[in-house]
Amino acid sequence: MQSKDVKNTVEVCFSPHSFPLYANEDSIVVVIDVLRATSSICSALHYGVERILPVASVLEARNYQAKGFICAAERHAQKVEGFDLGNSPSEYHNPKLKGKVIVFTTTNGTQAIRVAREAYRIVIGSFVNLTVLCNWLSHQHKNIILLCSGWKDLFNIEDTLCAGAIAQKLEQTNLFEAHHDSTFAAKSLYELAHKDLIQFMENSSHFKRLEKFNLAEDVKYCLTPDLAPVVPILEGNYLIASKNK
Amino acid sequence: MQSKDVKNTVEVCFSPHSFPLYANEDSIVVVIDVLRATSSICSALHYGVERILPVASVLEARNYQAKGFICAAERHAQKVEGFDLGNSPSEYHNPKLKGKVIVFTTTNGTQAIRVAREAYRIVIGSFVNLTVLCNWLSHQHKNIILLCSGWKDLFNIEDTLCAGAIAQKLEQTNLFEAHHDSTFAAKSLYELAHKDLIQFMENSSHFKRLEKFNLAEDVKYCLTPDLAPVVPILEGNYLIASKNK
Questions:
Q1: CA B41, CA B64: separation in Å to the nearest integer?
Q2: Which residues of B touch A (CB under 8 A)?
Q3: Taking the model in full, what pTM does it have?
């Protein structure tokens, strides 16, 4: 337990590529991939999926599929042919998935989980679990790294905005402080964008990429706070819903 | 010469660590280290220094010093003991330096120049040469990478704001377009901060670091546009003032 005077840190890392510069084995890492992996993971666990096995490659997912697992695979914003599920949160609001185990691979989100595997603990963050996640984090008495999944190792705006929202909420508890300019920038961008996230996002590259695939409904869901109030935590190889909110 | 319909790109890279993700041998790289290396380089060439030899290590600078060169070395925001000059732009406004060659090494700025050495061309950017630099860039008909030096490979806010200012000015010419979210973020942050850069910067980590050393005057100089209207370009191993503005 920390003393009352010593705050924990909360810092934003803009992409898996930069993670070694922030990594610390004693920190909790929050993996963020707003559009759409971490929003889908929250949605799945909130609606009753029992466990999710994140895997980094499509090949690994195919091997699990051959063994009879329900498998989700997305690459380049589209469902990979031959898989049961893609990366749309709406697919996971399905009574048939209740109590099931799902194997899951996406372009960026599952890579970020792999990069952070040495962390003290890995949890999943998105706008859809914002409040419950921040409450949970504020009870852990640990330093926090907010790891944006980015787009193919590059900075992306939606993960940064979500990280900014989390950092702002955590600092407001007075239990956390931020030192890095990346955290300052993420909070500033969130401050600038929060009144209308979708409008702000319309100028971003990933937004345009998703627009091509008619994913406006997904985007709206993924940018709405607290629609899937669950804290997915990595236990062994599986993501499960934390019992403590 | 490009056709009228095809715009060149301008993109912001947040730190030398991320440069391999943006690198392109056919691009012009603008190295930015607002506090204070690239501001000092502009200041030196503007006030009559003939050439600057950027070197990556203090040891290299010491070797040149032993051979009789005037040498500048900064580490951790302070002049390295035993050197002629540090990293304050005010030191370079000195008639005795007119026509001289200076060897120069700093914590972040000269490392960024080294990282970009395979580029089509390297030039130096800062607020103090903002307008003349953008005019020069808009006549080159090349893609531009704005390479922020950061702080020890991490994102920093002042270089990002400067990159945002350059990107915004270049896009306003209608000759350039930006695709990456990093460029969108840098422009958004500049838009948020530009009315009072110093006030905005007061919350940043590097600002606090410099404040400890009583460098308020330097910071004010470095954040003021167009005080040293010169375009430093790398020719061979030396930075010289471009003859074409």
A1: 18
A2: 14-15, 17-18, 21, 151, 153-157, 160, 179-182, 184-185, 188-189, 192-193, 203-206
A3: 0.94
